[in-house]
Automatic annotation (TrEMBL):
Keywords: Membrane, Protein transport, Transport
Protein's membrane topology: Peripheral membrane protein
Name of the featured protein: AP-5 complex subunit mu-1
Keyword Transport: yes
Principal location listed in the UniProt entry: membrane
Positions of transmembrane segments: none
Short name of one Pfam family: Adap_comp_sub
Gene for this chain: AP5M1
Family assignment from sequence similarity: Belongs to the adaptor complexes medium subunit family.
Localization (cell): Late endosome membrane; Lysosome membrane
Signal peptide range: none
Amino acid sequence: MAQRAVWLVSHEPRTPVCGTVRFSRRYPTVEKRAKVFNGASYVPIPEDGPLLKALLFELGLLDNDKDFMESRDSCARINKTSVFGLRIGGDELWPVVAFLKNDMIYASVPLVEQALSPRPSLINISGISQAFELLFGVQDFLCSSQKNDDELNTKLGQLPDLLLQTCPFGTLLDANLQNSLDNINVASMTQPPKQPAWKTGTYKGKPHISISINEKVKSMQYDKQDIADLWQVIGAVTCKCDLEGIMPNVTISLSLPTNGSPLQDILAHPCVTSLDSAVLTSTSIEATDDSAFSGPYKFPFTPPSEAFNLCYYTSQVPVPPILGFYQMQEEEVQLKITVNLKLHESVKNNFEFCEAHIPFYNRGPITHVEYKVSFGQLEVLREKSLLIWTIGQKFPKSMAITLSGIITFGAKNPEKQPFDQICIGGTAYVKLHFKILDYTLTGCYADQHSVQVFGSGKPKITTHRKLTSSDYYIWNSKAPAPIAYGSLLL
């Protein structure tokens, strides 16, 4: 005797769907047994959405299903047992035990330990009586001393732990859920919490939480009308929680300023216990608009002992932080180059470092350079065929800088000179390297006052932010765009 799945559905007439799944529990181990027992007549458990629609239709609880339906309402289908068959797609899920009580539908699918065709008699299916006992027990638990919706929500939140005790692996052990709840409460008061297997030790000392937000910006700039520039931010939030106790609970909120770019493609660490659906459904595949979720992004979790990445995310900021133009003209053994860089006015003008690397691979060594820079210093690495334009820690007040020059090369030696499959002929680039501390391009930050810790002691909270470049290229506007980097932002 076992149950394949259990549902609680609130009946909500005069709403678009006429109902909401308030609780559901599936038992995969029982489902595997059903597949073996039922053979060719096996019908899998559907998702909550299709089941909700089929269940409300079968019970005649949909607002638009008041008309007579022969397949459901004929005299041949008079039901006195509260056991139904639900039409889902082209199959029928049977048997489904379901009944309505106080605007709540209680439903369960018992395991049938034989083929379903021909359909066996109900008296030979022992799981049906167990389904009724389980559903009546859940009903008694929800209805006892229930006064308002808050109490109902509290009891619904206790169901997962209670069913873990009273109906493990789909087999009912005790239908008195209230008695099991009392036993759990007594045990939690008399016994210390059990050390989880994945947490080998506990921290002793002053509580401290460190939060670091690291963003990397990628960019491909071509300065061509027929080729769109590409840029994207990839972020990671790293945490280290030194907290006493075996299982402390922490909630960290990430916030954005008014004009911040929404976070997308959020991937959370397994220790995160729950996430708002709006956080998970925001993806970079869909075009962003004013209705995109802009936070705060709350992450409740039980932290591991070591440092870990709480989440990763992407974001499509309006403009790249540094706009660039690069032009290279080849004349025999000489090259004429022009590089223009402009820092966007919204970006913090305070770098830890900022420099532009201009390689001339697949050529001979640099023998002579005549150049002019409006800002910064130029270093020539002759044997490496590389120019390094050190911009420093700040752009000038104009936010714009230029570099121009003529470069002469010697005889090419394939054994000594560096080779790059991308930087061939006119397909040349400038690659930017920079880091800005205490700044993120999206504006994302962790508010210290929003960090919640449910445990002993008040921890010290420190936060850090930084923005770095990653694959930040400005391509030669006189040459075709390199195909090799076309999938950079995928």
